[in-house]
Design a protein that fits this description.
14-stranded antiparallel β-barrel; Porin; single chain
Length: 333
């Protein structure tokens, strides 16, 4: 996503001087900031951060999510996603053997990410191939292929001094987009890396001196997820993990956390996002195949006194076929 602290500067009402300040800040933000949507519950739906997880589980996986960041702050980020993915074996009506086998996966992913007058969205189809390299280990390669749309909506902007200023006007850019992912996993360990926005697409962006410029660039973003699923006894499992994110010319961001799972029916945990937030999350099975998960981010930035935290909720449904057992860690339940 774009740098959140900058993007919210341009919301109702705003003066021309605010606009100039936002313009100076916005252009470098396009080039150096984290530009993909933020997620706190990437363990619950890891498919949206790495296409190599397409078809990794032994069920058809459907998830809808909504994230309301910096609650109470007008124009603050709001993100919605919908995703579905499955092994091709399941789509063909075949049951994956208990010991697992090499297979393919297909999926789709939609998202919208709104920050005041800035609106970004995308649609992707996904494909992955999971190669069984030993009795316990798989290596998966996957890709997202689709399009992203970046829009500026001047209906969310009011210029008090110069209401008809030509520097503020609607624009919309649609670009072809692609992501690549690698994922290595067994029943108890997992590690993956993905590259997003790999084409360095340019978008129109507001510039100073009353003209539009094309210096805005969607920079490639990279992330890595590493973790383990450790059985403590017959009912409790422990899932430590670390999640790394970076983009060109921006500092490395990382999350470190742990999740506790009880009897595959209840889960909860904590994570820390460096220089940003502490996240608490929990979830449960509503019934056999339906899941509900919620997280809350306690902000650690200078905005912590101006908003009341971030809420994220995921509703998922799994079409489980004969309770098969895949070779993946099943950390997403």
């Amino acid at each position: 996503m774009f740098k959140r602290k900058i993007a919210i500067a341009l919301i109702r009402p705003v003066t021309y001087y605010h606009l100039l300040f936002w313009s100076f800040c916005f252009l470098p933000a396009l080039q150096h900031a984290q530009q993909n949507p933020q997620f706190s519950q990437y363990l619950q739906n890891p498919f949206v951060i790495n296409p190599a997880l397409t078809g990794v589980e032994d069920y058809v996986d459907i998830n809808a999510a909504y994230r309301n960041q910096w609650t109470g702050f007008e124009g603050a980020p709001r993100t919605a996603t919908f995703s579905i993915n499955s092994s091709l074996l399941l789509l063909n009506g075949e049951l994956q053997p208990h010991e697992g086998q090499s297979h393919q996966g297909l999926g789709a992913f939609f998202y919208t990410d709104d920050v005041g007058p800035i609106k970004q969205g995308g649609f992707y189809g996904s494909y992955a191939y999971h190669l069984k390299v030993s009795q316990d280990w798989f290596v998966a390669l996957g890709t997202f292929v689709g399009a992203t749309q970046f829009k500026f909506d001047d209906s969310n902007v009011v210029l008090l001094q110069t209401p008809n200023d030509p520097v503020v006007q609607n624009f919309s850019d649609l670009n072809f987009d692609m992501s690549l992912g690698l994922y290595v996993y067994s029943k108890h360990l997992f590690a993956g890396i993905s590259a997003n926005q790999i084409f360095n697409n340019q978008i129109r962006s507001i510039a100073v001196n009353r003209q539009l410029n094309t210096n805005g660039t969607l920079e490639p973003n990279f992330n890595a997820l590493v973790g383990s699923r450790i059985a403590l006894n017959d009912v409790f499992e422990f899932v430590p993990h670390i999640f790394l994110k970076t983009v060109s010319n921006a500092p490395l961001r990382w999350d470190f956390g742990a999740k506790m799972v009880y009897d595959n029916k209840f889960w909860g945990g904590l994570s820390y996002r460096n220089q940003d937030a502490v996240v608490g999350f929990f979830g449960l099975r509503l019934f056999e195949n339906a899941m509900l998960s919620y997280s809350y981010d306690w902000a650690l930035t200078q905005f912590s006194n101006q908003q009341s935290g971030t809420h994220e909720i995921i509703l998922g449904y799994r079409f489980d076929f004969a309770k098969q057992q895949c070779a993946c860690p099943k950390y997403s339940l």
